[in-house]
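User: For documentation purposes, I need each entry recorded in a consistent format: the amino acid sequence on its own, followed directly by the corresponding structure tokens. There are two entries in this batch. Please keep commentary to a minimum and don't merge the entries.

Assistant: Recorded as requested. Entry 1:
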Amino acid sequence: MTTTNLAGRRALVTGGSRGIGAEIVRRLTADGAAVAFTYSASATYAEKLVAELSATGATVVAIQADAADAAQTAAAVDRAAAELGGLDVLVNNAGTATLAPIDEFTADQFDRMVAINIGGVFWATHSAIAHLGEGARIINIGSINADRVPGPGVSVYAMTKGAVSSFSRGLARELGPRGITVNNVQPGPINTDMNPDEGDFAESLKAIVPLGRYGRTSDISALVSFLAGPESGYITGANLNVDGGFTV
């Protein structure tokens, strides 16, 4: 259902061409926001998303930027603000996952995951602050693995998402006096092309989710839209789990 609760809001979603990010872009535009999103290598997906949403009359802009690169990230934030005429909402969604035992991790794998999952969030936020005013929203997309790790091989990824959780709480303190809220959405198992809800791995996760199934990308985008809107103004510093009960 299309609403207008985000009419007049201008949002940037990092990593918005596929999966959860693309669904966030769809929901924010459906709810009335003008949206820019970044993508790294998925130009075809980005172009299709722009065409899809432009056909509905939405304002949507795709910007190529590698979330691991601080300079590209800063340039993308500034371009988004210029294209949209300002910025009210930042959704730090860009992320990557390398799952491997700690003694098999390479330096390149570690450095890139930290650069994207931690550095990307920091530099996008660092650059966006100049454009965000009273009533603005910063919404980070973390992971339930910050709170619970279901098995081996996830420790480094969990470390990066734990950093996002801590950063969100600290930033809420820092930016609260400016009227800017900061929240961290922590998805559990969500069905995407990179994390399908079928197969042995999926079945092992379903076994420990009380609802017995994966979530949908729309489960995440609905919460992000709420946090971006006018009714969430007294929610800040929260880690919000969307996980089917994964952590209970």
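Entry 2:
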Amino acid sequence: MPATIVVGTQWGDEGKGKFTDLLSKEMSMVVRYQGGHNAGHTLVVDGEKFALQLVPSGALYDHIVPVIGNGVVVDPFVLLAEIDMLTRRGVDCSKLRVSGNAHLIMPYHQQLDALYERHLGKAKLGTTKRGIGPAYADKSMRLGIRVQDLLDEMIFRKKLRASLVHTNKVLTKIFNRLPVDPDMLADKVLSECLEPLKPHIADTTDLIHEALEAGQHVLFEGAQATFLDLDHGTYPFVTSSNPTAGGACTGAGVGPRHIDRVLGIAKAYVTRVGAGPFPTELFDEDGDRLVEIGREFGTNTGRRRRPGWFDAVMLRHAVRLNSLTELAITKLDVLDTFETVKVCVAYDINGERTTKLPYHQSDVHAAVPVYEELPGWKTDLTAATERRHLPAEAEAYLQLIEERVGVPVTLASTGPGRSQYLHFSSL
């Protein structure tokens, strides 16, 4: 029962979509298991760019059944707009299935997200204001509304009224905003979303297990990344779900014995969006070059990403958290013009050196990176198709990463195109 998880190992934006798309050729089903439309995947196919938010990357293949699992929070208006966009561009979305147990993001969740962030002032978290956090909060408070509730109008209206009792008190008494009319909102959602979504709603846990039991290959696709994980990330500067590999089990409804491969995606340098600690962050010309060459701006938000050198300390911790079996390194070509490249191999914290990621947030904030510097390759890698095409300096860079984190690099990206990658071992 072969199942593979693709997980980001840094702070997101590692290029997971490209390798999910690559691996999808060998899969029957691709399952998105957490997050919402705060995460974007950009794919370039035959020179055409596709920016996906909710629909799994594998949807671009006709043979794939794309699944949005129970752990995802779904804005129905965004999902329908994305389906419409893909359909207009020739992508068949008829096989897409959405878990009836996935929770819905309502317009008031987005309103609350923006209000909470504004209320935090200088202590803001850098949320995308897409309503993700408030929707997960309602889920935990048992005030959430699930996709399956759309199929029973009476239940949907009843749950929406119950949820808005709490939400309207927050809006009116804390933020001095107008209350949301539950009947008007219910009318809008049901009239605009029910019929087009109905064919896609399913018991996705059953679908996944049927595929696994039939010996089909299933790929589980995470959004965000390891250090944005609600439990294991740099809290509170994290997302509201569990992007780590374990999240695939709860977010899709499978047990760990089904998983036999966990592919970690890491950028050849590091970027972060929003607030939070970042030991290897660069504020110099090298950082500006990484942003410019790597086009480091958010797929959904357009925000400039914070750049930094590769951090092997945090990646080693990500290997542990996710039980990674292998690594894919993306954007290796972005480093083509650098005279030297650096890898953080340890932290200096208050005069003490460590190769382990500190558990205490104050130590992470105080960490000073200890670098190993290597000569750059000064060679255009974008045309490389085999490992033997790599210059010795680029090979040495990958070998250092392997040595420091303890798992092999089996794939490397050398450009944005679908075919621009190096494959070091069999899929």
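Summary note for entry 2:
The radius of gyration is 22 Å.
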